[in-house]
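Reopening this one. Same input as before:
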Amino acid sequence: MREDPHKYLHYGKNLNLKNVFIETPARLKSAASITSSFLGAYTYTGNSNVFSSTVIGRYCSIGNNVSILSQHPSNWLTSHKLSYEDDLQTGTARQYNFLNYNGFTFIGHDVWIGENVKIKSGVKIGTGSILAAGTIVTKNVEPFSIVGGIPAKHISKRYEQEVELCIRSSNWWDYDIYDLDLTFDNPKVAIQELNRLKEQGLKNFSLRTYRRFDTVNGEVKMEKDIYTFERFQDEKLKRFLESDIFCT
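Same output, byte for byte:
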C-alpha cells in the first residue's frame, strides 16, 4: 500500500514537482514548480515559487513568488538551450558544456526570504541570513546578514558578534526543536537550554535522510525508498550535504 505523502509533506494545489528530495516534514504551498532540488526539515514555502537545482537547508521561511533565475550563455552563437541541452524532447545534455548550467544554488539553514525575491542560479545564501522582499540577489550572501535592494546590498548583521558566535557554535539547526519550549526571544539563553537538552538525547538530523516527491498526472507521489546523501553521485552536492551549510 502506498503511503500518503501528506504524512510527510504538507502541500497545496497545483504543484509541479520533479526529482524533489525532502528531509521531512516540510510544507509547500500552492502553484510551486520545483525540479532537481533538496529541501531541509521544517522548511516552508509560499505560493508560486520556482526552484531548479536548488539545495535548501532546514527551518527556512520562504515567501510568495520567490524564483531561482536561469542561466544561459551570453557570448555563444546563441543563448538558446539548443547548444547544450535537447530541451524540446529528451532534456539530455548535448555536446557542449555550459559551465554555469546545472550548477546548484545553495540556501543555508534558517534563511528568511521575503516575497518576490529573485536569486541568480549558482549563488550561496548563508545560514541565518534574511533577504528583504523584492530583492534581486546576484552574488553570495554572508551568513547571518540582512540584504536588500536591486541588486542586493548588505544592510546589517542579524546579531552582535558574541551572539552570532554562540549561535554558530550551537548548530541548533541540526536538531529537532519544533516542539520545544525554548526562550526563543533570548538567543543566548535558548542555546543554553538547547545544550542541556542535547545532553539528554535530543533528536538530531545526523542521518540526513530524504524522501523523493514527484507530480504524476497532477498528483503528488512519494517514493517509498528513503535516500541518504551517499546515494547521490554529484560530489559537490555530497560535500554540501556533509557540511554545515555556509556557516563557517
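So the earlier flakiness isn't reproducible anymore. For the record, The chain has a mean pLDDT of 87.
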